[in-house]
Amino acid sequence: MSDRPPTDDILVLQKSLRAFAAARDWEQFHSPKNLAMALAGECGEVLEHFQWLTETQSVTLDAEAKREVGYELADVFIYTLRLADVLGVDVMQAARDKMAINDGRYPAAKARGSAARAKTYESE
């Protein structure tokens, strides 16, 4: 495990992704709209691996299926980081902020063991 804070790892990866795109003259295609559409497409590719599986099958993937899902998750992560970079969003801070919001929306004492939407807890 690295001694660097996760934020440093994210920034290093974003810089690498930026350089990868620049070396191929792809920045012209990496508009927020295009990156968001590519991200949605990659999310669909993750879903394809689970389509028609039972709950049990979905948690007992074999090594090859896990590897393939891992590559699709990597694509999702890459497009997420590129979109954040192009928009100037600090994705680590956004994640921390969103977790704080979710902590308020889904109080552990009320939400424990429930898949109910946040509205359920807001009305109590």
What does the model show?
The protein is an all-alpha fold. The protein has seven helices and no strands. Helix 2 packs antiparallel against helix 4. The protein is globular, with a radius of gyration of 18 Å. The N and C termini lie far apart (43 Å). The model has no long low-confidence stretch (mean pLDDT 93).
Short overview:
This protein has 124 residues and is mostly helical. It has seven helices and no strands.
Beta-strand share of residues: under 5%
Low-confidence parts, pLDDT < 50 over ≥5 residues?
none
DSSP strand count: 0
Query: How would a textbook summarize the main sheet?
Result: none
Shape: globular
Please state the structural category: mainly alpha
By DSSP (H or I, 4+ residues per run), the number of helices equals 7
Mean pLDDT: 93
Q: What percentage of residues falls in helices of 4 or more residues?
A: over 70%
Q: How far apart are the first and last residues' alpha carbons, in Å?
A: 43 Å
What is the H/E order?
A: HHHHHHH
Radius of gyration: 18 Å
List the helices and strands and how they pair.
Elements: H1 6-23, H2 32-48, H3 55-59, H4 63-87, H5 91-105, H6 108-111, H7 118-122
